[in-house]
């Protein structure tokens, strides 16, 4: 028997498992991001394939966060309606489920709560927090039902799948909100005024999507103002 005892490297032993967990988390996130991006391009293009192809050329990987935030802000009313169900479910998961200890649940709950506060204050949507509180009260009543109750089983499954529920809700917004992720502008040109959205500014050219989902490329020198 060798005098040298075999040593183990904890980092080496854990690396396959860590890599598998990392891949298991990244792959669904990447797939979700791709579906979100595709739905946004199609939605703002009025689900016209040729327009969507033109719009896709204006987007880069660095635009991802701005695209997500801009989408949620552009579709604020739909976001408010979805928050009535999503935020109470996140809070219920945080309070009553073992998944509530996960960082993603805590962060999602905080972001959803801040979003609700901002929407309520900005647009005076008084019914938003009242409705969310009523839904949470309904969840509390469901939780005291017997364990064999079908409603309680459905509620427990929803808490277990809260990440998927939240992700699908955001995809729902992406598919229905046809307003682009940038503010609407009045673009003055040498031929008149265009109402639309500036998707990108390239060297010597400006890419614009109009209100009726028409993609236009203007020469920068022809633009006299942007308001």
Textual characterization of the structure:
There is one protein chain. With 227 residues, this protein is of the alpha+beta class. α4 runs parallel beside α6 (127-143). It is built from eight helices and five strands; from the N terminus they run ααααααααβββββ. Among the domains are: 76-176; 185-226, SLA1 homology domain 1 (SH3 type barrels, Roll), CATH 2.30.30.700. The chain crosses the membrane at residues 20-39, 51-70, 76-96, 103-121, 127-145, 157-177. Keywords: Membrane, Transmembrane, Transmembrane helix.
Give a concise summary:
Keywords: Membrane, Transmembrane, Transmembrane helix. By secondary structure, the chain is α+β, with helices and mostly antiparallel strands. It contains 8 helices and 5 strands.
Question: Can you tag this structure with a few keywords?
Answer:
227 residues, alpha+beta, SH3 type barrels, five-stranded antiparallel β-sheet, 8 helices, 5 strands, elongated, membrane, transmembrane helix, transmembrane
Residue-averaged pLDDT: 84
Number of strands: 5
Separation, N- and C-terminal Cα atoms: 82 Å
Spans of at least 5 consecutive residues with low confidence: none
Q: Helix amount, in percent? A: 55-70%
Give a short account of the largest sheet.
5 strands, antiparallel
Going by helix content, strand content and strand pairing, the class is alpha+beta
Shape: elongated
Which strand order spans the largest sheet, edge to edge or round the barrel?
A: 4-3-2-1-5
Radius of gyration: 24 Å
SS strand fraction: 5-15%
Number of helices: 8
SSE arrangement, N to C: HHHHHHHHEEEEE
Transmembrane segments: 20-39, 51-70, 76-96, 103-121, 127-145, 157-177
Keywords: Membrane, Transmembrane, Transmembrane helix
